[in-house]
């Protein structure tokens, strides 16, 4: 069973930075697209950023130019560098990955989430 565990969340002042990490463990065959999602208080979960196995990236409009997604398939890690943080970035951030179980089956894996709070 494959698991994803996020870390790096916390309390930061507006304008500050945080780096989130997502560590994968278990019987990993191969990851396809990986992504960060977030859910703020009273809001629906939204896509923050995604990255393909080939390194192509996509960002939500509200984080473009401030956040950077990356992955290290050797270390089985994914990262989200968050700069110029705003109070509206406050949310639980979730790691998500498409995991190829075998040659014809994929599964969608989610982490448990890490809280990011931006406040003075």
- Which sheet architecture does the biggest sheet show? 7 strands, mixed
Low-confidence stretches: none
Strand content: over 45%
**Average pLDDT number:** 96
If you had to describe this structure to a student in words, what would you say it looks like?
The protein has about 120 residues and is mainly β. Helices cover about 0% and strands about 60% of the residues. Strands 2, 4, 5, 6, 9, 10 and 11 form a seven-stranded mixed sheet that branches. It starts with a strand and ends with a strand. The model has no long low-confidence stretch (mean pLDDT about 95).
Ordered list of secondary-structure elements with their pairings:
Blueprint (H helix, E strand, L loop, with lengths): L2 E5 L2 E3 L5 E8 L4 E10 L6 E6 L5 E3 L7 E6 L4 E6 L8 E12 L2 E6 L3 E5 L2
Parallel strand pairs: 2-11
Antiparallel strand pairs: 1-3, 3-8, 4-5, 4-9, 5-6, 7-8, 9-10, 9-11
Features:
120 residues, 0% helix, mainly beta
Summarize the structure.
With 120 residues, the protein is mostly beta strands. The chain is built from no helices and eleven strands.
């Amino acid at each position: 069973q494959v698991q994803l565990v996020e870390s790096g969340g916390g309390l930061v002042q507006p304008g500050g930075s945080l780096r989130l990490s997502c560590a994968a463990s278990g019987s990993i065959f191969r990851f396809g697209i990986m992504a960060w999602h977030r859910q703020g208080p009273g809001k629906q979960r939204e896509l923050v950023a995604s990255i393909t196995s080939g390194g192509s990236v996509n960002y939500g409009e509200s984080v473009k130019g401030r956040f950077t997604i990356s992955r290290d398939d050797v270390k089985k890690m994914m990262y989200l560098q968050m700069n110029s943080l705003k109070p509206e970035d406050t949310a639980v951030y979730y790691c998500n990955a498409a995991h190829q179980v075998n040659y014809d089956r994929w599964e969608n894996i989610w982490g448990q989430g890490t809280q990011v709070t931006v406040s003075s």
